[in-house]
Amino acid sequence: MSEGFSGGRPFPSPTLSFGSRREVLLGYLDYFRDRMVAKLTDLPDDDLRSSRLASGWTPLELLKHLAFVEMRWLEWGFEGRRVADPWGDRRGERWHVEPDETLERLVSELERRAALTRAIVERHGLDEQGQPGPRWDGAEPATLERILLHLLQEYARHLGHLDVVCELSTGLTGE
């Protein structure tokens, strides 16, 4: 499927040694992305585009959403760069994927986004504050560390959602 996500990345346990807080945060993001892709790869093709939940989102929509979340918080928000469509994962109030968007294509985009995230994080200090801009809707920009903690929360929450979908679909549970 993908060279970037193997499905076998070890959990970044508190007992593992990391060189810095930055590497701890990036390690968790890498782990959550890896688990997300492994779970999606294990789902039957029909279940990637259908929903088993009352909220109606599909696993492919979730994958696309997470790549956009990283872009919105880091590239558009923190660095204040112009992006073509920061809300391109949505149609109205719902997540959306086009019929030609495949698991492989969306995983490739997540890999590209992961590399950009790492580059942004490595260029800045964790206590550095983001650039003012439309992402903040008039509020004071957050620090890089707070943004990374928010991204970890977003991934962990959605990975839990995907756990439920996988259990309903395949009966498989756990990490």
Set out the fold topology.
Elements: H1 21-42, H2 45-48, H3 59-78, E1 90-91, E2 94-95, H4 103-123, H5 144-170
Give a short synopsis of this structure:
With 175 residues, this protein is mainly alpha-helical.
List keywords for this structure.
single chain; mainly alpha; 2 strands; globular; Four Helix Bundle (Hemerythrin (Met), subunit A); 175 residues
Detailed description of the structure:
The chain is an all-alpha fold. The protein has a single domain (21-170), classed as Four Helix Bundle (Hemerythrin (Met), subunit A) (Up-down Bundle). It has 5 helices and 2 strands, in the order αααββαα. The chain has helices spanning 21-42, 45-48, 59-78, 103-123, 144-170, and strands spanning 90-91, 94-95. A two-stranded antiparallel ribbon has the order 1-2. β1 (90-91) and β2 form a beta hairpin. α3 (59-78) runs parallel beside α4.
* Annotation, overall tally of beta strands: 2
SSE sequence, one letter per element: HHHEEHH
Q: Which shape, going by the Cα principal axes? A: globular
Strand order of the largest sheet: 1-2
